[in-house]
Amino acid sequence: MRAKTVYESISFERGKDPKSVMGIGKRALIEKWFKTWAPNVKYTIDDNLNIIVGGSLYLQETQITELPDNLRVGRNLDLQETQITKLPDNLSVEGYLDLRGTQITKLPDNLSVGGGLYLQGTQITKLPYNLSVEGTLYLQGTQITELPDNLSVGGEIYKDF
Questions:
Q1: Is residue 6 part of a domain?
Q2: Which of 30, 80, 88, 139 lies 20 to 30 Å from 22, alpha-carbon distance?
Q3: Tens of pLDDT along 136-158?
Q4: What stretches of the chain adopt beta strand conformation (E)?
Q5: DSSP per residue over 73-117, as a string?
Q6: Structural domain harbouring 34
Q7: Number of folded domains in the chain?
Q8: pTM for the full model?
């Protein structure tokens, strides 16, 4: 029995990433995440797969469990009362970051927050290396007992200790 050769042709839309069109690869996973959790949010993905959201990302009280890596939010990121347990690497938020009532236990190193950082009711026990908060840092109701030497806060710090 002789094997048959099958030829297929796939056409891709000019300017579109073939993996994304086929629904595979990291870019496709990012696009699927936004369609599921933030369908009306405008975002861009650069060639290095950095995700830029120009406005705010309001996900409070959703069933979300994770965010994509390399996320930059141009305004506010509200994750209050979500099921999220971990923040992604290289997260940058130019407005406030609200984590109240989440199951997050640790913040990523080099986290940058341009507004306030709300940590009330989280399980976080210490702040990360090189944390920069340009606004107010809210630590009431956390298990944080000391502040790192390299902490940068532009506003006030509200704490219970």
A1: no
A2: 88
A3: 999 999 989 889 888 999 999 99
A4: 43-45, 51-53, 57-58, 71-73, 77-78, 92-93, 97-98, 112-113, 117-118, 132-133, 137-138, 152-153, 157-158
A5: ESS-EE-TT-----PPTT-EESS-EE-TT-----PPTT-EESS-E
A6: 20-161
A7: 1
A8: 0.81
